[in-house]
Amino acid sequence: MLFELPYFEHAEATTVPQAVSLLREHGDEAAVVAGATDLLGLLKDRVEGPAMKTPRILLDIKTIEELNQINEYSEGQRIGAAVTLADLVHNDLIRKHFPVLSQAAAQVGTTQLRNMGTVGGNLCQRPRCMYFRHPHFLCFKKGGKRCFAAAGEHRDYHAVLNRGRCVMGHPSDTAPALIALNADCVIADSEGEKNVPLQKFFAGPDSFRETVLRPEQILKEIRLPWPPTGSRQIFLKRRVRHAADFALANVAAVAVFAGEICREINLVLGGVAPLPILAEEAAGVLRNRRWDEQLIGEAAEAAVEGAKPLPRNRYKIDLAKALVRRALRMICESP
Fold first, then answer.
1. Distances (CA, A) of 264 to 102, 177, 232, 300, 325
2. Where along the chain do the CATH 3.30.465.10 domains lie?
3. Sign, Cα dihedral of 42, 46, 50, 53
4. Closest CA to 211 of 265, 268, 170
5. H or E stretch including 60?
6. CA separation (Å) from 142 to 29, 125, 134, 164, 172?
7. Pairing mode, if any, of strands 57-60 and 9-12?
8. Class of the domain covering 232-333
């Protein structure tokens, strides 16, 4: 490892159109930074390949005021892409209306990382796979022809569901929470802005990139609709160490009850697939039913239906089921 940054130019944008113009001008030679807690490590370690060029221009979007704001709009809450994870943890409106997001943000990294890292960066971060992170392995994600993890080291940060040409486990903690909250993301480019359901923001295991963002686009903000009155929300995460580690598995659940009957629920798994997984079959088991221990067990089994573990990460299936069961029990016990 080199641990020394390569030469690059630093640019600042003060408006979204200016940022988009700079990206359009420089294409894949530019990269967006805000907290840069992920990108700088990749640059220091010279993680690159035919599908992953080392950027020569780093475009700072922290200087765009609107991207640093959390505010209300007519249908819910707007969160700029450069809002820090610490802000999500401590913001009173987020904690009141979207506690699952505040809980998820609080589980990311360390205090220092949460003070620097942003919600946009957490959604767009690259894989934690050791082969991707090592400069000497030209893996699929960097433009190579193979995934080294499939037959190599894959115990902690790799998938048991929806595997493809890459077997990474998606590392974001905020993504499952935001998908459970029915979030949209706003993508800006030279043609304007478009809303994309966050569930469709992630590209999947057969893409070189983890998101649908093109080089000339930026993630501008996240939009959260107001949750129904009395919604019950929970986020749980399991990791190797209590502090700083990425998820072996996580789960976000947002449910709406009428009395003892669950009328609606979103259940999302992270860390166990190359993108966050909306567990629709498990939700179908739970909707319009009164929950008991047997039903919760059936939902947990449905959440990992079709899992195909790698030789050393089979334990993740039981881990994911245990997290789902625990999350559902906690929702049952909440007022």
1. 21, 16, 10, 16, 17
2. 71-122+173-225
3. positive
4. 170
5. strand 57-60
6. 15, 14, 11, 15, 20
7. parallel
8. alpha beta
- What tens digit of pLDDT does each residue of 78-129 get? 999 999 999 999 999 999 999 999 999 999 999 999 999 999 999 999 999 9
Considering the domain delimited by 71-122+173-225, tell me its CATH architecture.
2-Layer Sandwich (3.30)
**In the chain, where does the domain assigned CATH 3.30.390.50 lie?**
232-333
Q: Cβ contacts of residue 125 below 8 Å, gap of 6+?
A: 38, 171, 172, 210
What would the pLDDT profile of 296-329 be if each residue is shown by its tens digit?
999 999 999 999 999 999 999 999 999 999 999 9
What tokens appear for 184 in the block?
A: 């949209």
Among 297, 284, 281, 280, CA closest to 332: 297
In whole angstroms, what is the distance from residue 68 CA to residue 73 CA? 15
Task: Produce one character per residue of 291-303: b if its CB has 16 or more CB atoms within 10 Å, e if not.
Answer: beeeebeebbbbb
pLDDT in tens, 223-277: 999 999 889 999 999 999 776 789 999 999 999 999 999 999 999 999 999 999 9
201 contacts 185 by C-beta, under 8 angstroms: yes
User: How confident is the model over 28-80, as pLDDT tens digits?
Assistant: 899 999 999 999 999 999 999 999 999 999 999 999 999 999 999 889 999 99
Please identify which residue in the block is written with the tokens 């997984």: 277
- Identify the burial level of 206 via C-beta atoms within 10 angstroms of its C-beta, where 0-12 means exposed, 13-18 middle and 19 or more buried: exposed
Phi then psi for residue 265, to 5 deg, are -155, 140
β-bridge pairing 289-290 and 9-12: unpaired
C-alpha 66, offset from chain centre: 22
- What is the number of residues in the chain? 335
